[in-house]
Amino acid sequence: MDLAEGDRAVAAIREIAARTAGAQVIGGIGGFGSLFAFDSDRWPDPVLVSSTDGVGTKLKIAIALDRFDTIGMDLVNHCLNDVAVSGADPLFFLDYLATGRLDADRAAALVGGMADACVAAGVSLVGGETAELPGLYAGDDFDLAGFCVGAVARADLIDGSAVKPGDSLIGLPSSGLHTNGYSLVRRLFGADEYETHLTGMDTTLAEALLVPHRSYLFDVRRLRTALRAADGDIRSLAHLTGGGWAGNIPRTLPARCGVVVRRDGWTVPPLFQRIVERGNLADGEAFATFNMGIGLTAVIPAGLQMVAQAALPESVQLGEVITVAPGEPRVQWR
To answer: Measured between alpha carbons, how far is 115 from 93 in angstroms, rounded to an integer?
Structure first.
């Protein structure tokens, strides 16, 4: 290991992380364990919600383009969303960076993106691990993982148990592929096409592929506040990541409940259209691999769609909750 480069990376990361530290962070980067003082008055009868995830082969796009300023945002926002769909407030975040050859500048760019996303969300980056593992990672290859812990009062937990047939399904747009489907994209498009403009797209393919994963944290908070003011609440939330629509929405529904989705409820963005055309993908494969332009779905009480629309003007009306028989698809299309 290059100890000098390691020291340079740690110094840069310590300075970057310091700007995310809230009042509940005790100490700073450098201890064996990260310290965070939990506020039990803010979350009575608290439930801790944790999430861990990675960025996947989107990293290979970043390496090919030598651009690392957005990947850290992807990592944080993915984990924040997984915590937020339970109704929790994210508290703190940690990361793990493993590489074959430590590059302090690249590490600083990666952690800088994490810090930007943490600051935007009001979350503290309290620590992490940077490992140089030349026996596992060759050349410029590296991997990145994130870990987030949040809290919610038990009475405010969103667990899908209140969902019932007739409830409405709404969705919020994604910012792009987020962090799923990149292995397929890399098979369909060569690196020589990254700087080209595909039909219907205002940006290059590279720019579109590296748009950061969107955070829905504040959208969830706005929606919940609006619905509660109208004597309702969010009944379930699904973050459309790996597994797509059928792999994620049913996880948020009670047994015997499914959803029927209107295909004309939104327009699939050009990036997804070009991918589907290039790969000649059937609907089943496309919607199982990609979010297809919708990154978050919410089940809300019937009759409160206009309240949701006023709180979240970007939201779209997707469909409704239905009763399904055993063995019947739980995500159906109309």
So the answer is: 10
Tell me 250's DSSP state.
G
Local structure of 330: helix, strand or coil: coil
Other beta carbons less than 10 A from residue 332's beta carbon: 14
Give the C-alpha separation, 64 to 166, whole Å: 47
Class of domain 3-156: alpha beta
Calpha distance 219→213 (Å, rounded):
14
Taking all residues of the chain, what is their mean pLDDT, rounded to a whole number?
94
Q: pLDDT per residue over 305-332, tens digit each?
A: 999 999 999 999 999 999 999 999 999 9
Q: Is the dihedral of CA 292, 293, 296, 302 positive or negative?
A: negative
In the chain, at which residue ranges do the beta strands (DSSP E only) sit? 25-26, 35-36, 46-54, 89-99, 124-132, 142-153, 168-173, 236-239, 257-261, 294-300, 316-323, 331-333
Encoding tokens for residue 323? 């009763």
Is residue 248 helix, strand or coil? helix
Closest CA to 53 of 20, 25, 85, 87: 85
Per-residue pLDDT at 12 exceeds 90: no
The per-residue b/e assignment along 258-281, b for 16 or more CB within 10 angstroms, e otherwise, is bbbbeeeebeebebbbbbbeebeb
User: What type of residue sits at position 104?
Assistant: A
In three-state secondary structure terms, 7 is helix
Tokens describing residue 246? 């059928």
CB 55 within 8 A of CB 74: yes
Q: In what order do the strands lie in the sheet with 46-54?
A: 46-54, 142-153, 89-99, 124-132
Domain boundaries, the chain: 3-156, 168-333
CATH class as words, domain 168-333: alpha beta
Q: Please, where are the H alpha helices in 195-313?
A: 205-209, 217-229, 244-248, 270-279, 283-289, 305-311
Task: Check whether 127 has a pLDDT greater than 80.
Answer: yes
